[in-house]
Design brief:
heterodimer; A: 271 residues; alpha/beta; Rossmann fold; eight-stranded mixed sheet; two-stranded antiparallel sheet; 18% strand; globular; B: 63 residues; alpha+beta; Alpha-Beta Plaits
Chain lengths: 271, 63
Amino acid sequence: MAFDYDKYLRPGKLPHIWCPGCGHGIAMKGLIRAIDACGLEKNNTAIVSGIGCASRLPGYVDFNTLHTAHGRAAAFATGVKMAKPEMNVIVVGGDGDGTAIGGNHFIHACRRNIDMTYVIFNNSIYGMTGGQFSPCTPTGAKASTTVYGNPDPTFDISKLAIGAGATFVARTTAFHATQIDKLIAEGIKHKGMAVIEVLDDCPTTYGRRNKFRSVVDMMKRLKDIAVPVAAASKMTAEQLEGKVLTGVLYKEEKPEYTQQYAKVIAKAQGA
Amino acid sequence: MSSPRVEVIERYCKGCSICVEFCPTKVLEMDAFLVKVAKPEACIACMQCELRCPDFAIKVFKD
């Protein structure tokens, strides 16, 4: 075996609920490998999620886990981190949970630069509730609530995170399985808000409506649209049409929120 | 060194066929909506199937 996942999984919980070919499983394996590579202790790690397909992940992994209200994962995670600043806090969730219903919590967690790792599983749709369009559904794509094609422009989660103040932002896809764990591991080690966007596929509610013949077609599309940041700098705007950049998109060092808050406490106590 | 061994956990397999498609030596094939190890001797232990399986259903043992 290349890797033994069993030591991080709760016994008896598999098979998971995700549909055949759902990229969430691939991303979850990447997350587990990243946690292992960083050597995080189970008792000192909290995995927090909201509601949705991706948010079922904490049920399968053997850490301190929180499955919270829709979109509120970042808020609960902030609470955990403030109460226990030494704890490693990882948030997982989908694009709808993170950027629509929880958009406000997401941008303010980014703004504060609180030390957590937010892994967004972007499958471009609300999968669990029946395929409604999300802010990440591509313009023109079909969803159960946009049967004539989605008229909305699309959110770029990574740009949103950078704009809101996150200090580590990276993007990868479910096809690039080994890159997932490398980027998440880098995000975990980063002191501050790390956002890792994993583009994946929803064959059941997105692929079916958008003329993807199979799960494999969706995986090949992820391979085709991804362009590493270094390669993109040598490409023209025309060549980059319809592509997404992958790799570390942004990184900087800034004061971290729990450390700043500790100074406030010290000041208030007259230190 | 003995040849690698590919193990499919049928209880976890949902038959998405990602492993079948990405196996470079065509070790795996679909059989009644589940994955079957058709040519075990062809396995080169590249781990692509184990890495890409979304369902924790494939394990490759190198020796």
